[in-house]
Amino acid sequence: MTSTPRNRQLNIIDGALLSAKIVKDASEAAPVLGPFKATAGLVITILETIRDVKTNKKDWITLGEHLSIQIKDIHDDLSRCSTPHSTELLLVVNTYEQKLEDVLAKIRLTRGRGRFERYLNSRTDKEEIATLRRDVDTCWKDFMRKITLQVLEAAHRIEERVKSVGEDMTNVGKDLKSVGKDVKNVEKGVQKVETSVDAIGDTSYFTKLVPLPSATGADHNTCLAGTRTGVLDYIRQWADQHNTAQVCWLTDVAGAGKSTIAKQLSGEWKIEGRLGGCFFFNKNRPDTTNKQAFCDTIAAQLANNQPQLLPSIIDGIKAIGPILSVCPFEEKLQKLVIQPLQDTALILVIDALDECDERDRNIILRNLLRSLTQATRLKLLITSRPERDITELLDSYRSPTDSLHDVGLKSNQHDIGIFVKDEMKHLVRTGKLTAEEVTQLANRVNCLFILASTACKVIQKSLRPRSRLHDLMDSKRNTLGDINKLYLAILTKACQADQNGQSTDSKAPKEVIEVLQAILAAATPLSISTIDLLLGSESTERVVEFLSSVLNVRHDGTVVILHPTFREFLEDGKEAGTFHIDIGDAHGLMAKGCLATMKQELRFNICRLESSFFRNRDVPDFNERVSKYIPEQLQYGCTHWLDHVTKSGRKFCEDSGTAALEFVEAGSPLYWMEVLSALGKIPKILRDLQEVGNWYSEKKLKDKFKDIKRFLVAFSTPVSESIPHIYISTIPFAARKSYIGQEARGLFPKTISVMTGYPENWPEPPQQWQGHTSNVYSVAFSPDGCYIVSSSFDETIRLWDAETGQQLGEPLRGHTDIVWSVSFSPDGRRIVSGSLDKTIRLWDTETGQQLGEPLRGHTDSIYSVSLSPDGRRIVSGSLDKTIRLWDAETGQPSGEPFRGHTDSVHSVSFSPDGRRIVSGSLDKTIRLWDAETGQPLGEPLRGHTDSIYSISFSPDGRRIVSGSDDKTIRLWDAETGQQLGEPLRGHTESVLSVSFSPDGRRIVSGSLDKTIRLWDAETGQPLGEPLRGHTRDVCSVLFSPDGRYIVSGSDDKTIRLWDTETGQPLGEPLRGHTESVHSVSFSPDGRRIVSGSFDETIRLWDAETGQPLGEPLQGHTEYIHSVSFSPDGRRTVSGSLDKTIRLWDAETGQQLGEPLRGHTDSVLSVSFSPDGRRIVSGSDDKTIRLWDAETGQPLGEPLRGHTRSVYSVIFSSDGRRIVSGSDDKTIRLWDADTGQPLGEPLRGHTETVCSISFSPNGRYIVSSSFDKTIRLWDAETGQPSGEPLRGHTSYVYSVSFSPDGRRIVSGSVDNTIQVWDAETGQPLGEPLRGHTGSVYSVSFSPDGRYIVSSSFDKTIRLWDAETVQPFGEPLRGHAGYVASVSFSPDSRRVVSGSNDNTFQLWSAVVCHTLEEQSHPNTHMVSTTTLNNAPDKVPLPQSNEPHNSIHFLHFVGLVY
Question: Of 69, 380, 501, 772, which has the fewest beta carbons less than 10 angstroms from its beta carbon?
């Protein structure tokens, strides 16, 4: 990339940011730096804000760089101090922070609203920056003096202490020698007690762990006395000796008794105090078959078994912080297990590792083995079957003990004999079997414990034990020679079938197989009764009884497979024969049962709730109601129906489509949502709905699933939190064409009805997807098009729903620097990322967890990563000029690096067949490589005249497209390396990203010029106009898998979605201005909106549709600061930086007459008089002017008196007076007829006056200021009315009276809003908190019931003016700070203007209706109470008082 001045500036600020982040991270890690953490955070915020300043940027960047150097110096000196810090030092830190806050506020003003434009363009701008620097430097120097003094004082104290200790040591030296050993022992004991006592106060952190009790081996038995003595003695000896290997791997076939040995030894070691912890994997317990709970479970046991380790574990939990639940496995293992164990001799037991998911067990095993070099006294006992991947890692640790199932070993025969005799002793004692018969049985079971155990259970459960024994020992059948033959015999007996599995009763095998299908496919273990109800059967209990030798009824009544070998037998078609179970068919059976259960049992108001005034969690007996009214089978069906559908296979979906369609068309989805709300399963179902739509081919059904999802996304808050509000707060506001909305309004015709502003369709996904806190460098679609992944300068990776734009889960954290590149695996299950931290990382798409260790090998930043088409290899390109191949499963490098490029490799990609790799470099060349050998294929492709940033193969692998710093795109023949045609020209800056469409017919490109372009891949011609919308460099562009959309990521921190056919962004309202919108206003009738922008235009808009009315109003030659309608709505007035005021016809958009000239500097504020005959204006030239609104002529001389800029002017309600607020810290009253000042200036504020307003009756004026206060004034006398209103801790930007004049609302840079009593000046309640940035604008609604606020945090918030509580979630959508916000005259809508170049309309009614129903009869809704109800809907009896509004009244169901 060429080094433009802009790039150099950004590099400086990015370098300063990186330095400040390092200082902040160090402050969080070291207690001595604690007081400095907030300081570093402030500097980071300042630097990030400076990035977006548009003018005088060089001066601001110089100041930012200076601050970064200062905090580095402070950090270095503070690190040398000891705690506690002196009070003087802490005060200086506080003063320094206050000065930094002033800097931040000034910067925000610089890029802020128009009326503060002096900070952008005034001649004193450089002086302001210089003054800020001098102030900060003064505090910094004071800090350095104080810290130097503290260091010197500390050194002096140490010197004195050393002298004193030296004298004491001389006197008592001999005594210490004699008792030294005892002292050391006592000290150790005291330290142990002290650390344990200290840890008690932090035990709340310990509760953040989520261990699995089911993973501690409670289901397993210990060894019988006298059995397994050889292997037990060997492992005990291994554990006792210090010079043995740190790992012992006990491996054998399934059912050999490995888990019993692990259980025996872990119990012994726990009694001896040598057990750290144990983890028993078990396929019957799905939560134990992955790595998710491994670290938490082991850490919890460590703390319980070894209390002295508790402080270290808590330190680990603190270090991980709030991301504990999503922390990468590697980091969690290190901080919670390995680091606490580093100096401790303990043993960890890991049993049945083969029953863990293969990918997860590799991660666990590799991390544990790697950690042994740190925890050198740790030992691991691991048991598993000899699976290939486990053997590769553990073969050198294999236990040398004899096979546990070798028939030829006397020890095994002996152990099996003891076991069988113990199991059969009751039958021998009662005479049902003889001792000789038992011995014969022991000799026939081939020394396999699972075979012996299962055979014993079969005999014990039989009504005729001896007969059953002889059947099993029949030599012709050889049933006891193979566990699979035993399983077949058990099933045959249960079905009364012949030995070959051919049934003599056609019904019996079907019943047995269906029960087994349900048990195998169940997402969670189910009870006998639940299985019966889901299957519509009555045979489950009988089947379970017949199969009690292979099935286990647990203590909670649920049924599970007794041993994994039985599951494997059933799924093996060759071994099981007629009893083979296809797992897809099993899921289909369960899906069918779930659907039938829901259709039969779902109904309206299932939990019998009487009131809509409580959230689910606030209903006193809510949990009891759920248990009572939602039975287990319905809970299971509602939760797991879609799981089973997606696992059943496409054939089932085709066959069951009609049943599914009937369910979604019958109003059942709303009743289904009731259960999901009660169980807290809405988030899970949203994920399931995303996937299930891909399995059904019928368009109507796919559309309905999509509509249900859009409904749940739109109303997730009310649906999740309150069952009644599924009806009250969703049906009225569902899109008119939504199928679920139409069905619901048909079922519940008497719900509240929306009269205006009714949406036809669900909103499109937002054009801007916000979440990253810095530049977005890479974006990619998942193969199915359902998800988008993005990476950023903020060191995170984020996953998004491609349909709704919602962020999915928490950011993926792990990289320690900028993440340059991200990509999905071909199956969509993994994400690969490359970073400036020189590592590549793999992530699980579902869980967001990091998979294994980072891939290390590159010696510099990694710019590009990509997975091969088969998902088995990763290719990466780096600043170190090399390309590397990696094994995606093991994370190991494949061969040597590919060398050839002479500069950074910025882009790499596999060919569609995976046989070739293409790379693009800053050396201006493209190279093709053999993916197997790593050898270059032919000569480099030359043609570009500057760095190559992006390359990509066409879908057929025959062409390559490249984008370069030379501003061109080039096409190449992938076979010959020849350039195809002329370069594609059009971009005016570097081309950062290029990609083919899925059909290979189009190319998309993103550029430093902030645009996206589409090109015809055959002709090279541009398709349509550039796609504009991003406000900074477009770093990444990509087509969706279906080619309908383009996703783009930009330096402006946003992700955008575009329609490839129209080139239009999806879902952005009210767009037209090309620069910041800093003034918006409703017409008096509320039907139109006027907006003024930095793009020098004014626009009129239809307030109902959001469509622009006519062309932009053009005439001003500079920024427009202020716009307003005349009282009759026929004219608009505007004031501009071009020093003029202009009048416009609000109907035609034509300018009325000549510009009103007279001001000699920017016009900052304009307003009509109440009768519309005059206009008042305030200016940077320090004057106020009155104008005739008809003729445009000035009325009299300018009103002079202010000594600095006039920011705000307004008429009194009777039009007789004008009030003005100025940067000279005063407020002035003027006679509107004569222009004469009324009395002396209103003095009291000590800083700039930001905002002024008359009370509704005209008797008072309220003002706010940079001095952090609000003041009330008597409008007649000009005297202050009482003391200043204090409470805000920073600048107060906005202030306003309520319509009745009894209250005042204020908004401040301290991020809060405060409501005040206008009579007493006292605050009403606590400050309104919620905004995370400065509050720029606050206002009461015309009816006085609500307050609206806008903020630097890019949100708008609504508040209840009576209760002073927030209304629901913030209104999000703007990509920049929200400078201005206002209610429509009827209080029904809110309009907001932002520096993202847009303004937006919001429905004030929907915002509160979705969250609060205490005022149902609002302006936009009407309610009717009738006594009709759908048929067959049982209604609960109400004891609610008559004056409350029952939610059933809202849906037309009363009783």
Answer: 69
